[in-house]
Design a protein that fits this description.
Elements lengths: L3 H15 L4 H37 L3 E7 L2 E7 L9 H4 L22 H14 L3 H14 L9 E3 L6 E3 L3
Antiparallel strand pairs: 1-2, 3-4
Helix pairs in contact: 1-2, 4-5
Length: 168
């Protein structure tokens, strides 16, 4: 993605704003535009990076990366590879919408020990996924076969012939 047209437009708008102020204001606007170009470029990159993170959250397990080629950003969509010998339908973990959960995305802070964090990063990298997408997939697949909280279950008391719980 070429940022130069956007930076040129900012220069043009700054010059137009300084025009009524006369030659001194125009000179000042030119000097400011030259000085602020790198700041404008960084602000645009920050906005693109934030947008990339939001898009990745919505597309998990697919992720979108923002890469720099020279001074220009480039978007890359990363689709996790299919596990060998497994069909695409079986490889995908059930999504939130498949389970009827239409909640909006929320943020969670997760604290991991360094060893576990390194192992999670390695596993995500091995599947070509972002750590966030990998964790979403792991949580979804872990919870997919469990009954919802509060649903009837049965348990046995250890060392006893007594049973307690609910039956349907």
């Amino acid at each position: 993605m070429e940022l130069t047209p956007y930076l040129t437009e900012l220069r043009t708008q700054l010059a137009a704003a300084a025009e009524p102020g006369g030659p001194e204001a125009r000179d000042l606007a030119d000097r400011l535009a030259a000085t602020l170009e790198s700041t404008f470029r960084l602000a645009l990159l920050d906005a693109l990076s934030a947008a990339t993170a939001e898009i990745t959250q919505e597309l998990a397990p697919v992720s979108v990366e923002l890469r720099l080629r020279g001074r220009d950003p480039e978007f890359v969509v990363v689709v996790p590879p299919e596990p060998a010998g497994v069909g695409r339908a079986a490889a995908e973990a059930p999504s939130a919408s498949a389970s009827g959960d239409d909640d909006a995305m929320t943020r969670i802070n997760l604290r991991l020990g360094q060893d576990l964090k390194d192992r999670v990063e390695d596993a995500a990298r091995a599947t070509g996924m972002s750590v966030n997408a990998w964790l979403v997939r792991a949580a979804t697949s872990t919870l997919a076969d469990r009954p919802p909280a509060g649903s009837p279950t049965w348990t046995t008391a250890r060392g006893s012939d007594h049973y307690r719980g609910w039956a349907r």
